[in-house]
Amino acid sequence: MRKTLICAVSVTALTLSACSKPRDDTDASYADGSETAVAAEEVVAGEPAPPATAQRAGEASKPLPALEKIPTSLPQLAYEYDYRWSLEAAEIGSLQRRHASLCEQQGPASCQIIGMSKTGAESSEVEGVLEMAVATRQARAFGALLEDEAIDAGAEQVSAEIASEELSKQIVDTEARVRARSDLRDRLTEVLRTRKGKVSELIEAERSLAQVNEEIDEARSWLRQMEGRVAYSRVTVRYETGGAGGSFLRPVKGALGSLGAIFGWIAALLILAGAVALPLGGAWWAQGALRRRFTPAPSTPEAPKAS
Question: Is position 224 within any domain?
């Protein structure tokens, strides 16, 4: 029994020693991990660290090269919209007025009427033009409203065009010119303020200053005009005679109009010829009458008397 108790104690001791070894290893790993964390904190805080750890931390904290930002700017475009509608002659005036009212309903900040015209009688070929300035951001939506009104009036769209003009370079050049002239104006103003130089030089500086101010005003005016063209698009709506018989009657009416013009030119030429020939004919007749009046009549020989 004593031997059995000794063996049990030995087995227990061996078991405890075996279980205590992993715990020691784990504690050692925790200790190593804590030392690594402390070393990383010392690198971030700027404190000295072991060479290998400092090198790894330096490589990890090395910032990436920043990407250069490429300067970009949107193109400055001036848009022009052109719509052409064909409908009956009697409906052109009504549709034109409806489109004009639609523009006025948008408000002066969004749409303004530039011009409006209509030519021709309702019994013949009629043409109309409506010109508007519409805010560029609303130009496409406003074109859709115009289309809805035209379709409701029974019009047929003949064409729709959108054109643009690039004004970026002109705007940039004009702004640079304004800045350069403004700097020159400041220098000339300083010369005149200090009164340094000869009288002739001061007089020339005054003339140059007046010319520079004029150039600055002209450049700024041109710049405002271009900016206005970019902010507001030009919308032109054209109306022309259409309908079922329009395609057949239009050439006939054109031919009749041409004949009327030809007859008019013939009548004008006859009037001109009569105005020139009448005085000439009157002068010729008067000259003949005077010649007959003052020219003596030829004497007739007397017949011999009979003996």
Answer: yes
